[in-house]
Amino acid sequence: MTSPEPLDPTAAFAELGRIRLSETNLDQVLARVAGLAKRSVPGASEVSVTLIRGDDAHTAAFTGLLAVSLDERQYEDGAGPCLDAAATATTLSVPDMAQEDRWPGWAARAVDAGARSSLAIGLPVLEKVTGALNIYSVDAKAFDDDAVTLAQTFAGYAAVALANAHLYDATATLAEQMQEAMASRAIIEQAKGILMGRRRCTADEAFIMLRKVSRDSNRKLRDVAESLVAKAQAGTDR
Fold first, then answer.
1. Is 128 a member of any domain?
2. Total-model pTM
3. Is 167 in the same domain as 184?
4. What region, left, alpha or beta, does residue 136 occupy, with left being phi > 0 and alpha being psi -120 to 50 degrees?
5. CATH number, position 184
6. In what order do the strands lie in the sheet with 117-126?
7. At CA 130, angle to CA 129 and CA 136, rounded to 5?
8. Which segments in the chain show pLDDT lower than 70?
């Protein structure tokens, strides 16, 4: 692991505030949060971000394999500081892994992997999505009171950025789905119009024809409509 170039916390907070959601996505925001935390929290060796929806916990961003491997061990065990911090929206500190007795199996694994202390700060992202900012150090007792306070402040800024990114991502996805649905409806209506003109049938009858071809050929209704429209435009429909 290489030591990151230190970053003044004020500059890190400012960078979080400058994130333009229209020019990035949720994964990139998560990666930015992890990277900035690693550079700005004194004592941090590696950082990860855990997101939890229901019973599904996963590491959404990480700066190194040490962090993600120790996160995943917690998911396997169903217990650990990042899971507890996320569930309670609190900060959990492990000053010395070698003396940790709340999660002894996980702590022993952490020592074997080279981690000697950690911080986990709960992130209330959205009503149905929680998470934690996980900060690991290769040194025991790496995080003093000032570092803990700084990490908590950083987590507060990060939670706002993540919540905004999550909402923006969901809104953008919904907009894309609506556009796709409108495009599908338009092509289907066009195909119905072609059938109505050629077969002298009603709109309902034309739709039944399209649906029958879709079912019989095991193709999506939109694909059937697009094929009919394309053939009609090429003058090859019979």
1. yes
2. 0.65
3. no
4. beta
5. 1.10.10.10
6. 56-62, 46-53, 129-137, 117-126, 91-94
7. 140
8. 1-26, 125-127, 161-183, 236-238
